[in-house]
Amino acid sequence: MTWITKKLRQLAGDSEGSVFVEYLLLLTIVGIGVIAGLATVRGSLLNELLELAEAITQLTP
Question: pLDDT below 70 — which residues of the chain?
Fold first, then answer.
């Protein structure tokens, strides 16, 4: 975390600093989207597996 803070302070007055901040913001937004997507996939997969387990349980006499 200190590396990011040090880099942000170093690039604050530089024109490349704004590009770095934009990329950092973009990566943060993409990361949040990936986490939300994986949580949704996890929930759907869990529901499907539970339904499959229930169907298999009903097959046994």
Answer: 1, 11-17, 61
**How big is the CA angle at 33 (ends 28 and 39), to the nearest 5 degrees?**
130
The span from the CA of 50 to the CA of 22, in Å, is 42
CA distances from 31 to 18, 36, 44, 58, 60 (A): 20, 9, 20, 41, 44
- Spatial contact of 47 and 60, defined as CB atoms under 8 Å apart: no
- For residues 44 and 5, what is the distance between their CA atoms, to the nearest angstrom? 38
Report the C-alpha gap between 8 and 16 in whole angstroms: 10
